[in-house]
Amino acid sequence: MLENYTGYASLYDISMEHIPYDKWANYIDGILVQHGIDKGLVLELGCGTGNMTRKMADKGYDMIGIDFSEDMLSIARQGSEDREDGILYLCQDMREFELYGTVAAIICVCDSINYILTEEDLSKVFRLASNYLDPGGLFIFDMDTEYLYREVLGDNTTYMNHELGDLIWENSFYPDDMINEVNLTLFIKESGSNLYSKHEETHIRKAYTIDTIKRLLDKTNLDFVAAYHELTSEEARDKSERIYIVAKER
Q1: Which of 43, 102, 148, 203 is least crowded, fewest Cβ atoms below 10 Å from its Cβ?
Q2: pTM, whole model, 2 decimals?
Q3: Which of 102, 75, 108 has the alpha carbon at shortest distance from 89?
Q4: C-alpha distances in angstroms, 78 versus 47, 50, 84, 90, 198?
Q5: Helix/strand/coil (H, E, C) string of 172-233?
Q6: What is the crossing angle of helices 51-58 and 70-80, to 10°?
Q7: Tens of pLDDT, residue by residue, the chain (250 residues)
Q8: φ and ψ at 78, to 5 degrees?
Q9: Residue 91 and residue 88: Cα distance in Å, rounded?
Q10: Under 8 Å CB-to-CB from 162, ≥6 apart: which residues?
């Protein structure tokens, strides 16, 4: 659900400490360079607190970051304050985003696409991506798979303890709709005290088959290029937990 990541924003980076942002950035940069894109404007959809946006800026791209959560963007802007990286952060819904011109590439990582819960809305994202890409520009996005939601997360509960707070993720999987529902409970330590405030959020993500992605891309003037197993140049597998889709503006 795109309206979430409110109370979670303050603990988001802590919960994502295990994410290999450097590897992700190197991987996506490699795909872009392979297709002749090594500079220019790049848009990140669902940029969150800007970790990936800043990594790509470090590689020489002129970055724009879009996210629906002003709380997340506030943290992203703080992260760019002393860097003079020129990143433009915009609070927009990826289903309705607007730019002043076209970009060389669009990226979307950390399963942000899975938060788009209907084919109709996903088509809106793809159509806008096509509209705002330079001719031949690339759209690269990752996705959690049905295998991850069904076999790995399933109906399991995950707990994380940190000096700034505690997080509890309670997962549920609904196979008929390929939906992963996460009931998130946060106990966030109040500044300067031993008191904790409780926040509850529900996050809903949907898995899509590669065939569905191909069909929707084709309808929105984007050519499917590849579906890669995470951080490789190999085809996606039945047991891939995260895959990368590469599409090109037609």
Answers
A1: 102
A2: 0.90
A3: 75
A4: 14, 10, 11, 14, 25
A5: EEECCCCEEEEEEEEEEECCCCCCEEEEEEEEEEECCCHHHHHHHHHHCCEEEEEEEECCCC
A6: 30
A7: 444 444 455 555 555 556 788 999 999 999 999 999 999 999 999 998 899 999 999 999 999 999 998 988 998 898 888 777 889 999 999 999 999 999 999 999 999 999 999 999 999 999 999 999 999 999 999 999 999 999 999 999 988 777 777 888 899 999 999 999 999 887 877 777 778 778 788 889 999 999 999 999 999 999 999 999 999 999 999 999 999 999 999 8
A8: -60, -40
A9: 10
A10: 11, 14
Question: β-pairing, 165-174 with 179-189?
Answer: antiparallel
- Residue 94: what residue type? M
